[in-house]
Structures are given as C-alpha cells and as structure tokens.
Task: inverse folding
C-alpha cells in the first residue's frame, strides 16, 4: 500500500477518535479500525486499477464460482466464506410494529425487505423506524425550511409497512465477491450490514462489517504463528529467534547470522497484516 493510502486510512480513523481519554479497550479498537481502513483503501486502489476505462457496470451474470488461484498461491477469501446463513428478512407488507419486533428479536440494526420470490427490494433500518416513531409522536413539521429539508424522510415515515418505510434501491454484494471488495462497498456506502444476493437478486445471506473486519484482519496470535513457521523455514534452529506480535507489529530478537537477517526480515514484512517489523536481533 502507498504512503498516501496509509495516511488516508489513519486520517479516517482519527475522525472517529473521541475527545475524552481512551479506555483500555479503545486503543486496540482504534488500531483495528486503522488496519481495516488500510485494507479497504488497498482494495479500492486495486479495484480502480482493474476497472475498464469505459466504466461499465458490473455484469448481472457474475459467476457464482470464482476461478481457482494458481498453484501455490493462497485462495482469496470471499463473501460466501463469511456471510450469515440463513439471513433474517421481512416481506414488504409486514406492518411497522412487526418490523420493529423483528429487529429486536434478531438483535440487528437493519434487515432486507424481500418480495414473494425472495428478491431483495430494499432495506429497512432502525433509522427508518425512528423517523416513523417521530412522526407518530409529533405529526406536524415546523417551518418551510424544515419541511423542504426533510421532505423525503417525512413522506416516507408516513408509511405503515416495510415496503413503504424501507430505503431503496438496496446495496447488495454477491457471494463470489472478494471480502476486500465487500468491505470497500460497506465503507463507501456507510452500511453496517449488506444483503448477499445471487445473480437474480434473491437473498442468500447477509454479511456485517464486523465479519468483514475479522476476515480482513487476523489477530496477533495468528500472525505470530505464521512468522514462527517462516522462521522455521529459514533457520536450522528456530528457537534462536524470539517472536512477539502486538497490534500487527512484529518484534524479532535473538542471535543470528548477520547474512540471514535482511532476507528473513523482508519475508516477514511480506506477510499479510504485518504492520511493521522491529529488528532486535544481534549478530552471531
């Protein structure tokens, strides 16, 4: 990833930094957010580089099976590998209160709205229901400016069913899409959950930002295991190197042949999700 993309990711993360002192859990959360945004920035960069100059839309007949990666290369993680199945949904004619009960029962902030054939026609969220509840509590708008500014939201909030309250058209992803592309879509659209549809627009699952985050960013224990495996491939005595990983930063200590160090450190830096490598080794 370029320095510009790193700076953009860190700037976006700082925007969400609270004005009060961080709790013990906040710093790791902010670090994970920076790493997530960096992965999204990388996906966006790759996406723009691969798009044709004509800017054509995504094919409606996107294949459900992705091509196999070349031998020796890791398989690309795809939406179907991390999505929730079955996905909660509501039909367009479901009354307002029943939609609210569904969100509470499923403990989600939004659900897809489907027709009789399971095609996703929209998404109804807590925000849509809050607008409805506000109109029910105070049905009169105040002032011409307020009426113009909130015209669409106000009119929609008079609906009594999922279909009249929902936001449309829906933003969806395909099961065969790479997780990185789905993360880009979620970030770009500022959505917490994305319906997953087949090439005919039928609901097959749902994927959340949390699941995308977990898929894109491995925890420190997994990174350490891969680093130790790599060390074992380079050294006859892997125990000569002590590996520590914190928030994606790898620290390597021990006594090594000076000639082996540059290649080993370069290999560790190439591992996915490694943020930086600190060399504390000593020449043997």
Result:
């Amino acid at each position: 990833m370029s320095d510009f993309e790193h700076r953009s990711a860190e700037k976006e993360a700082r925007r969400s930094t609270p004005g009060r002192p961080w709790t013990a859990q906040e710093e790791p959360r902010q670090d994970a957010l920076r790493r997530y945004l960096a992965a999204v920035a990388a996906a966006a960069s790759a996406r723009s580089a691969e798009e044709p100059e004509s800017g054509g839309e995504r094919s409606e007949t996107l294949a459900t099976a992705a091509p196999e990666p070349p031998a020796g290369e890791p398989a690309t993680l795809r939406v179907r590998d991390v999505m929730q199945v079955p996905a909660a949904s509501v039909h367009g004619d479901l009354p307002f209160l029943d939609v609210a009960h569904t969100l509470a029962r499923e403990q989600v902030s939004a659900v897809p709205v489907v027709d009789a054939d399971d095609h996703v026609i929209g998404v109804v969220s807590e925000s849509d229901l809050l607008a409805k509840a506000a109109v029910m509590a105070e049905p009169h708008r105040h002032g011409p400016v307020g009426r113009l500014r909130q015209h669409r939201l106000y009119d929609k909030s008079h609906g009594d069913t999922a279909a009249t309250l929902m936001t449309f058209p829906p933003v969806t992803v395909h099961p065969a899409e790479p997780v990185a592309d789905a993360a880009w879509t979620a970030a770009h659209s500022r959505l917490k959950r994305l319906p997953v549809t087949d090439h005919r627009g039928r609901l097959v699952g749902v994927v959340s930002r949390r699941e995308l985050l977990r898929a894109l960013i491995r925890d420190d224990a997994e990174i350490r295991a891969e680093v130790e495996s790599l060390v074992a491939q380079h050294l006859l005595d892997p125990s000569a190197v002590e590996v520590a990983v914190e928030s994606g930063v790898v620290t390597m200590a021990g006594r090594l042949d000076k000639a082996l160090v540059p290649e080993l450190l370069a290999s560790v830096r190439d591992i996915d999700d490694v943020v930086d490598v600190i060399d504390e080794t000593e020449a043997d």
Notes: The CA atoms of residues 117 and 183 lie 27 Å apart.
